[in-house]
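Supplementary Data S3. Sequence and structure tokens for construct A.
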Amino acid sequence: MSSPQASDEELVRVARSGDPTAVGVLLTRHEAGMKAVALGLLGYGPDAEDVVQDAMLVALRRLDELREPAAVGWWLRAIVRNGCRNRLRAARRVLPGDLMTLDLPDTEPNPEELVEQAGLRDWIWHAVGALSEPLRLVTLLRYFSGVSSYEQIAALCGVPVGTVRSRLSQARSKLATALLDTADLAHDDSALVNGASRRQAEEVMAAAMRGEFERALEQWWWPDADLIRPNGERRGERSYLLRIMERDLADGVRQRLTNAVASQDVMIWEANLINPPDDPDHCPPGVVWLHTLREGRTQRLRLFHLPRPAAS
């Protein structure tokens, strides 16, 4: 177990073994110093808070790369400095030349990489599951699916891009807080949840290939469920989804599952669309199935076609 009185070096060693409590103690211990750096460089405002929250996720992902565990406080503050530098660069402002820079990622931290660490995986997923449905949805899409651009998320969720940005900002804030608040709790096994989602997707697609898609819909789909097509048209009949699936299969189109993630009442399936050789442009290259669940069955399904690559 991790003690709040343990040294930074001891906490890093325990954290690397997969103990989320040690990570929580470290981040709580150095949070004030991280905020001080952000406020000093960016001033008061949401940007400073965002940088600190992002830095926490970066630290979780890269803790194994820390060469001197006793210097973890310096390292965390350096990550914040790097995040501030990126914000200022994006705003086309120049930092003073004597500010420290590190070889750290310029992009937003990717929680998907965090959950590959078995000791932290369920802790991360528990924090994601605590988000409200709108925040959880954009988080799953942004960080755990191939639909990661703001524009694609906005199209799939049917909201403006500005709303996506706002929800992601709120989600990062709540996620960082939840990671600190729930470090010492026991969590469900997220691998079981995501594994069940993938098995369901595979069963549904296999049933379609066998001509049993209607039976699969009856098992996993509420009779009054909504279907929202890629063009935004709302179709409530379960039979409509059956017809378009049968039509695509008859035309020689196949779906190859590439990803499946789930969190409570949200489930996302991603699949490549394999067109017949004689009609390579029949369908877009991929499709996303976005399920909103009620009692484990689909209450609403929104389909989203991935855009074709731009011609070079």
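Construct B, processed identically:
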Amino acid sequence: MNRFFKLLILVLFTNSAYAMANAEVAAQDSNEVIKLNKQAYDNRLTSPDQTVAFANKALAIAEKAGYDKGIGEAYRVRGIGNYYLNQASAAIHDYLQALESFAKIKDLRNEAKVYNNIGNLYLDNNYANSLEYLKKSLAIAQKLNDKQLMGASYLNIGNVYYRKKSFYQALTYYDKGNSIFQSIKDTVNIIQALQNRGVIYFNLNEYEKAEKLLLAANKAAKEMDLNKPVASTNLTLASLYIAQGRFDDAEKIVKEGQAYSKAVKDEKLESDYNYTTYQLEAKRKNYARALTYLQLIFRQDSTIYTSNESTQISMLQEQFKQQAKQRENELTIQRQQNDRIKFWAVTVVAGLLMVVIVLLVSNVKRKTVTNNKLTELNEEVSRQKDNLDRVNHHLEEIIDERTKDLQIKNKKLSEYSSYLSHQIRGPIATLRGLMNLEKEGLVDEKECINMMDKCVSDIDQKIIEMSDMLNDTTKSVF
């Protein structure tokens, strides 16, 4: 029984250690995913292709770790990168995948962010769909009191009204967004608000206000190395300078803007710059150059292009919905199977618990009997201990006597040793002297032998005396 409990504890401890190790690895993976997603998002206005690259790395790690929130954010940020690269189909695919991931973990705030992104995606081809998603995002942001998301929704709704040429309504939303971003000190979106308001004032022919706002946005964007805002701001500034007849200023700002649009690899912006250059050359009456740029930007009718793009996005959405419905059905079946498995698992666990309880009760009874026996043994041990204590006491007395006797003998031995050393040293010294005299031939050999014999006899006598003294403790050395 004890072995069973030890094995159970070992299994629990091993599982706990394994779980802790897995938790630590998961935490490291989550931190790496968060870091990569942030890097991807921060590059959206500078290098959208880097945004896609970092998001792909984050997605791979998040999927391997099963980190749902990281998966959703990686899809969302990659969608933003594809949006800035004018890859609408890839962007909507990523956004819908992000929505699925966030809905799975009931992350309402991030769902609202994705609605905002989808609203932006529809901005150029379907105003009704764009407003639907943006207002859905705004409603969630207001419910959560998320200032940053509310400000972003206001700016994007303003963009819809701007494209519908409802300039004053657009300006109202831009002002709301700007007010929020000023309060939370969101520098990037403050730049966007400056640019948007500048565009509105340009369309309202209030050129002085427009130029002031656009130059402020341009300066701030350059200070933060935000290539996309610089390029798009310069585009409006160029149109403003053309309208004012400031052609040299327009040419200068166009060249700068083209360099920034190439840096972010935005083909649409580059095409817009070609069109602005065409307008500039036409105003200058350089008709040959104007025609060159007009041929450069020639393409299919824009209405057909935007219609096809909108249809493609809608088809992707519908396809995604069908896939989502199919996955939901599969999940329902899987849940039913899991419920059955859980039922039988609970039944088995309950049975095992009953067995464990019976074993525990039996074990308690056995322990009671064992404890009684141990009590009796303890009493017997106590009695034996008392006897041992008495014996030990007697032994201690004997040991004390023996110790005293040994101390006396040790003292005697020390005295005998000193005495023997003193008594034997003389005859030995004589022997050495005789040996040296004999070597030098200063003494007769026979006489030397007699004298050496006498010395040996003296040493032997001293040893005999020493032996007698050791055997007779009553004799004194001196």
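The two ends are 77 Å apart (CA to CA). The CA atoms of residues 118 and 133 lie 7 Å apart.
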